[in-house]
Design goal:
The complex is a heterodimer of chains A (about 120) and B (about 110).
Chain A lengths: L2 E5 L3 E2 L5 E8 L9 E7 L6 E7 L4 E3 L7 E6 L4 E6 L8 E8 L9 E2 L3 E5 L2
Parallel strand pairs in A: 2-11
Antiparallel strand pairs in A: 1-3, 3-8, 4-5, 4-9, 5-6, 7-8, 9-10, 9-11
Chain B lengths: L8 E4 L5 E6 L9 E5 L6 E4 L13 E6 L2 E6 L8 E8 L5 E3 L3 E5 L1
Parallel strand pairs in B: 1-9
Antiparallel strand pairs in B: 2-6, 3-4, 3-7, 5-6, 7-8, 7-9
The chains are: A mainly beta (about 120), B mainly beta (about 110).
Chain lengths: ~120, ~110
């Protein structure tokens, strides 16, 4: 059974760096083709694709946020970490991590419950 | 930047057929995926690779593709299908995006 869970601060101040951790079980990020991605959703708004890392350390970023994002993995801990620099109130959103089964196949078949991050001074 | 365009809302009566469209220039060459999201919940994949249905998704959910438009069809809509629906795909370079979402209301 695949599960994912996001963790991190619920409140960050403007200009600070956000660090979110996705801890998963039921699969390994050392398995060929597997990936873990991050998606966010501001309150009442649409989903926004952020970043993704594959088993072979291939990393993909949203072009509009690429300069602010870093995604890494710790295979031994079954964790993926997303950092976002220079946080702004417009970055207030629920942040989800999700599992992907294969490279070149763009869907996410399992999602975490999401974690709400508020950016405010 | 690449965009997928969905209607903001669709309304149907129970038992009728709901069709939600998603338009994008790269859709003839890239698969589309559909997610259902109910309030306070994470999205759930309902269609992948334009028309494939994951296990556990009711048969009333189907997907199709024609040119630059993909369509999610829900036949015999039930009250429990009321939710937001998002399409997802990628542009020709592989940059992934979500559509703006469609709120399905069951009257």
């Amino acid at each position: 059974q695949i599960t994912l869970k996001e963790s991190g601060p619920t409140l960050v101040k403007p200009t600070q760096t956000l660090t979110l951790t996705c801890t998963f079980s039921g699969f390994s990020l050392s398995t060929s083709g597997v990936g873990v991605g991050w998606i966010r959703q501001p309150p009442g708004k649409a989903l926004e694709w952020l970043a993704l890392i594959y088993w072979n350390d291939d990393k993909r970023y949203s072009p509009s946020l690429k300069s602010r994002l870093t995604i890494t993995k710790d295979t031994s801990k079954n964790q993926v970490v997303l950092t976002m620099t220079n946080m702004d109130p417009v970055d207030t959103a629920t942040y989800y991590c999700a599992h992907r089964l294969g490279q070149g196949d763009y869907h996410f078949d399992y999602w975490g419950q999401g974690t709400l991050v508020t950016v405010s001074s | 930047s690449y965009e997928l365009t969905q209607p903001p809302s669709v309304s149907v009566s129970p038992g009728q057929t709901a069709r939600i469209t998603c338009s994008g220039d790269a859709l003839p060459k890239q698969y589309a995926y559909w997610y259902q999201q109910k309030p306070g919940q994470a999205p759930v994949l309902v269609i992948y690779k334009d028309s494939e249905r994951p296990s556990g998704i009711p048969e009333r959910f189907s997907g199709s593709s024609s040119g630059t438009t993909v369509t999610l069809t829900i036949s015999g809509v039930q009250a429990e299908d009321e939710a937001d629906y998002y399409c997802q795909s990628a542009d020709s370079s592989g940059t992934e995006v979500f559509g703006g979402g469609t709120k399905l209301t069951v009257l």
